[in-house]
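no rush on this but wanted to send it before i forget. what follows is a protein written twice so to speak, once as letters and once as structure tokens for the fold. mainly i need to know what kind of three dimensional shape the backbone takes. thanks a lot i owe you, the record is right below.
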Amino acid sequence: MFSSLRSRLWLSYALLVVTALSIVAVILFVYLIRNPLLYRQTLERLQAVQTVVLERDGQSLSVVAQRASKNFNVRIILFSADQQVLLDTAAKKEPALNFPREKILPRSTPIIRDEKKSPWLYSIEQLPDNSYIMVAAPRPRFTLTNVFTDDFLPLILQSGIIALLLSLVVAFFFARWIADPLQKVVLAARQMPSAQIKPVEPQGPHEVQELTRAFNGMIARTQSSQKSQREFVANVSHELKTPLTSVQGFAQAILDGTADTDASRQQAAQIIYDESARMHRMVLDLLDLARLDAGTADLTMSPVDMPALLNAIAEKFTPQSLLSGVEIKVEAVELPTISADGDRLAQVFTNLVDNALKFTPRGGVITLRAALESDNSLPDRIMRVSVSDTGAGIPVESQSHIFDRFYQADPARKGGEKHGAGLGLAIASEIVQAHGGRIGVRSRLGEGTSFDVFLPLARK
């Protein structure tokens, strides 16, 4: 019955309300026992008699007191300023009552005892001449049954039950206010990892809304991850399909004798070799990405001389640059060494220069530049390494995806005979991030592109 969160919350609120009302009822009952209705009615009668006596209209106080005592069946005592008895209307019939003394702990009901220890209820007031008038009556006797039926039960029926019912209704709405948004989160969680699931609207208390927003963020990340996985599988399948088709086709040509000359067999073997090498490179890139994603790629950190590294890369591409008619320049003055994996950084800049050569027309210039500067997103002292070209540039809409896996901005960056699988920049980005840095791109169509790598001087 109370298996749901809503019902358990409601039950908790209900128990809390019942407990609070029970404590109030006990306190009320104790108060009524100490000050029952009979006491309160008697005190009101004594105060009324006292008022009548004081409004004596010029008559003698003693005469008015005697008459009031007889008519209202009360005892009236006059005390002097020094608290001595001047008049006692029941002096002959009842034991003496002395002037009431102040109690250390005053009672809610004024009670005084006579010489025989019998209790009296009283009301006392000081007169203008500093004397006192006290109206008293024997304390009425009562039973717990009378207190319960006359005082306690009507109060509980009139106020306690109404308060309990209202509290339970309020508790029900509070329980729904908290539980309903959580229930929506639970239902949405049970639908995971569906791609059709919608974000849950934040409702309820602030903490529940924060939980809902965090859950919505998790949904978005999960759906993005699923989308990336689907695209990854589709892209890998597409990239492998073409070379596998070529390998299968030319292998079949050799097997069935279609390639019947030495030249055709040589051509088929060369294509099979080239396509196999292409698949091999892609598999190595994928493994590299997987290790970088998992954080298991080993980085051998050592002091790296960046100008020397850039000059070595430029020298490595000298034959290609001469063949394509593109100049490669290095602009790097004396710089401090940085703590990094030299081989991995060489992989990054090699990929960037290789891309620049593919997309820079004859007569263009590729510039490798390194300098120290500050960056708010990284430690105070960083090194910025730029690889800039004078090629066709990258469209603005493509620049935000340029580091995505398998993404190629071929429509705008034409050039080169063959493009890779679109993994080079993704790997470069992962390597830079593994060094605690970041990589960015600046490009304008028709003016060229610059890839900027920001590296901390010391990896933390």
In short: The chain has four domains: 5-33+145-190, 37-141, 206-294, 302-456. The chain is about 55% helix and 15% strand. The first helix runs from residue 5 to 34. Confidence is low (pLDDT under 50) at residues 411-419.
